[in-house]
Amino acid sequence: MASRILPPGLGSNPDSRLAARLAACREQGRPALVGYLPAGFPTVEESVEAAVALGRNGADVIEIGIPYSDPVMDGPVIQHATTTALANGFRVADVFRVVRAVAERTDAVPVVMTYWNPVLQMGVDTFAERLAEAGGAGIITPDLIPDEAAEWFAASQAHGLDRVFLAAPSSSRERLDLVAKAASGFVYAVSVMGVTGARDAVSDVAEQLVADTRAAGAQHVCVGLGVSRRAHVEEIGAYADGVIVGTALVKALADGGPEAVGALARELAGLA
Q1: Is 255 considered catalytic here?
Q2: Which of 214, 105, 219, 111 is nearest to 161 (CA)?
């Protein structure tokens, strides 16, 4: 199936900063800490400072989310944040300000996480060009599957960006094979079925999903959904290349501003 869907010559990104950072973390004997924050929450300026605080306090990769009016994958904490950002005047172009700040003021690798419609509205190649110019490394696309990504394949290759697709516990071996071949940088393994949100325990299916995704050919696999504390990072880090934290960081930002984001990042990274 993969050969029928993927364009000829599509391969991994040889200049992938994501892959390089994950490999460096692996050499250090630790998982990469991947943190998510939405652009524009509660304001664009505060989201810039929060992302910088995250990058200066242990995060290796920072996912900058684009607020969206119909966030089907997001739980209540992130939904509230993105709704607030939109109400406060966030525009899609603002995401590049946040990405640029991370790229210029920290050594973290910035990527954008977005539903696909905002990219389509701007124009896929235009969005990719602006992201690359701002110092972004790629896009995580929760609602874009490889079967429908022809335009993104072309734009990502033209601008040297990584394509991060999702794998879920429900994914068939055939689907994992396609995702592994289509992705670059890493594959985002969703550890639970459902929306995002901090949980007391991480699903025990995550380890098997990582193993299956690697067996399908993925070079790097990061696990997200449900991670909220250092114990989760250590548990997942025993078998995954990176650990993705979102809701806990957004809640910290809502409750205590950029300083609280930095403090939680240090705790998650084992630096506190």
Answers
A1: no
A2: 111
